[in-house]
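pasting for the record
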Amino acid sequence: MQPDPNKAQADNEAMLQEVVQNTEMGKNTLEEIMGLTHDQALKDEIMRQRNAYRQLNQQAHTALDAIGCEARGQSAAARMSVSMGIRTRTMLDKSTRNLATMLAEGSSQGVLDCKRAETDYPLASPGAHKLMQQLCEMQTRAEQTWREFV
């Protein structure tokens, strides 16, 4: 039995939207945390990872454009929620250890989100799966890197 082409199209778009939202969450979080640290090694790693998120984000935008869909990034409410969480958790402790712990937790959550999307959207195109896999691998490496700062 052939898979439903409408379901495949919907899975494809949904997975690409997940990549867009996940990468925006990553780069926005990194930009916010960069302003909180004076640790140059941490800043350098934040900038390196932010650039990797930007690159994957652009690839997802391009893929969505190619299938005639518009990217829906992170909502204003989600951005505000993350920002408030960061401010709350760093109000009294802006140490490298605390910031790195927060980043490791965020990367871990990103990996879970990637794995959930892989399960939820099995009919997405090979290209969408590849982008999601790249994002998952990047966040897995990031989690380990952040733990080295703890």
